[in-house]
């Protein structure tokens, strides 16, 4: 059976059901551990997710509360704010500044027992692993970040890697892997939605766009100068190097690559892409002579100039309105 808002009603019922609350499955831990350590003369910080064992590492220029908070903000902005942060009792974490940070960002800060840092076991274990990676890559002159990538993508005892448990997908490494294994769940649905959006964007674009003619090698063109908004540069088309992308040899000897929208075709020294044609009067020479006025000194001057009807079109008056001698 079904009724409107059935899912909401079921959720509301189970939320207040005592038996459901008693036997509900264990919720996923939203807890991370953080610790500082020194290796090869540099200070480092590592934060590890308790659920996935996924580590985030950084080198600190300072071990102050401000530096630690700045690093934690970048991690929280990338992965989300945890429910609980576990650390030792170092001065960086026991300061008023860190207390204000925890309150502002809405997470609970727990610390290990004094003189017993092993209570922060996950962070201590992560420090040991990361220290080993740093020393091995330093002595072997290898890339530390590549080793960190391998550690994050290596399956644990449960068969899943830290990246899979944290992100819900495998991450690509230098090891060969079929592309289908890198696709997260729901990829087909997301791809179809993106394709539909591309079709809609193309339809909206085509409504206001027009087709520009294909350019051939040797065509005389002008190029748009974005700094001035003018079509000052001129040159010849060399070749089409990609769809609607051309190499232009300018009159100054430079070779430029431009998109077709920034190229204006010239035919007989007149542009044909963007300017509408000018309406001209095709009268005979005799008619043209009749439109000239003669002054007292015998000089011949043209009659009244053409009337500018619209900004982009020149229009001359009809012949019946022109006085003839």
UniProtKB/TrEMBL annotation:
GO BP terms, alphabetized: DNA integration
Q: Any idea where the Integrase catalytic domain is?
A: 21-192
Q: Where is the composition biased (Basic and acidic residues)?
A: 192-206, 316-325
Q: Which domain of life is it from?
A: Eukaryota
Q: What Pfam families is this protein classified in?
A: rve
Q: Name one GO molecular function term.
A: nucleic acid binding
User: For the region Disordered, what residue ranges are annotated?
Assistant: 192-212, 266-325
Q: Where is the composition biased (Polar residues)?
A: 266-303
What name is this protein filed under?
Integrase catalytic domain-containing protein
